[in-house]
Design brief:
This protein folds into two domains: 80 residues; 231 residues, Bira Bifunctional Protein, Domain 2 (BirA Bifunctional Protein, domain 2, 2-Layer Sandwich), CATH 3.30.930.10. The protein is α+β, with helices and mostly antiparallel strands and 338 residues long. The protein contains eleven helices and ten strands. The longest helix has 31 residues. Helices cover 38% and strands 20% of the residues. The structure holds 3,4-dihydroxyphenylalanine. 3,4-dihydroxyphenylalanine binds next to β9 and β10.
Length: 338
């Protein structure tokens, strides 16, 4: 009797294994465990089994029931998860995969990321400020006199009487100094806006990276060394850097910093307008009046600052002839920067 039960169990489990659908499985369950199934039948027949055999047969029947229930449950899960090949042609591993097109980094982002990496090694951290800025931080706190042409409607997108789209990243210097005491070593990449007519080298919307280093005895030599190091890291070891005297309201002395033209190697070409040099940054020693605006002691601290055009760097680094290409979102252009 027990052997018969075990044989029936093995048969039932084989049927479970062969089941291909939930309906197949249900049929097996009904055949054995259903109200009129084979197992209830055995249980009913237990009465007629001789007393000395009854315990053994009962145990075998229970064991059958447990094994079958467990088998049914497991198979149900496999069918539900779809991982069973026998369940049908849900997944064909021989089909070629679907190609998901990969995006690429925008050249402006590439230059920003590279600049952040270079300056991070020199101990600079990244600070950010809002695109909407107060007239005070964009101009007044940077010692820009009321009669400066950049304040006019011509150059600045004014939003409200004291609110504008920042024309430079320099106001972030003010934000940082208002909140922190020296020593300070930050760079601030970000968007800037000017009412410029768009052409091959001008865009009303562009990016700058500002740098600010304030400590005891920071010198112009530190500024030169830092920008020259940056140029070589960004452009390669052959780049030359030159500084020309200039004027900015927020620095004294002020300089403009040119890189030798990467496109022609300094010989002269269309991109550098035959001069061999490209203007990359404005820079200088922070004017003591700016320190006065943020409550720094100009007797105790000195600092340098610089602001450079990211699109300019991207254009000479990658040989992009027209700034507008950076803003047209042409995938044939953008896809080249991987
Ligand atoms: N903000 C200036 C511009 O947009 C660039 C600049 C010049 C930034 C000198 C500086 C600086 O921090 O010291 O033309």
């Amino acid at each position: 009797m027990e052997d018969k039960i075990f044989a029936m169990r093995d048969e039932a489990l084989a049927q479970v294994a062969a089941a291909r659908t939930a309906a197949d499985l249900e049929a097996v369950r009904i055949q054995y465990l259903g109200r009129k199934g084979l197992l209830p039948e055995i249980m009913k027949g237990l009465r007629d089994v001789p007393a000395e055999q009854r315990a053994g047969v009962g145990q075998a029947a229970n064991q059958f029931k447990e094994a079958l229930s467990e088998g049914l449950r497991e198979k149900q899960e496999t069918l539900a998860s779809g991982s069973c090949q026998a369940a049908g042609p849900a997944f064909d591993p021989t089909l070629p995969g679907r190609v998901i097109p990969r995006g690429s980094r925008h050249p402006v982002s590439l230059v920003i990321e590279e600049a952040v990496r270079i300056f991070a090694k020199l101990g600079f951290t990244v600070a950010e400020g809002p695109d909407l800025e107060t007239g005070y931080r964009n101009f007044d706190a940077l010692n820009t006199p009321d009669y400066h042409p950049s304040l006019s409607e011509q150059d600045t997108f004014w939003i409200e009487p004291d609110l504008l789209l920042r024309t430079q990243t320099s106001p972030v210097q003010i934000r940082v100094m208002e909140q922190t005491q020296p020593p300070i070593r930050i760079i601030t990449p970000g968007r800037c806006y000017r009412r410029d007519t768009t052409d091959a080298t001008h865009s009303a919307n562009f990016h700058q990276i500002e740098g600010l280093y304030v400590d005891k005895s920071v010198s112009l030599a530190d500024l030169k060394g830092t920008l020259a190091h940056f140029a070589r890291q960004m452009m390669g070891p052959d780049v030359h850097v030159r500084f020309r005297p200039h004027f900015f309201p927020f620095t004294e002395p002020s300089v403009e910093c040119d890189f030798s033209c990467h496109v022609c190697g300094g010989k002269g070409c269309r991109v550098c307008k035959q001069s061999g040099w490209i203007e990359i940054a404005g820079a200088g020693m922070v004017d003591p009046r700016v320190f006065g605006k943020v409550g720094y002691d100009a007797e105790k601290y000195t600092g340098y600052a610089f602001g450079m055009g990211i699109e300019r760097i991207a254009m000479i680094k990658y040989g992009i002839p027209d700034i507008r290409m950076l803003y047209e979102n042409d995938l044939r252009f953008l896809g080249q920067f991987r």
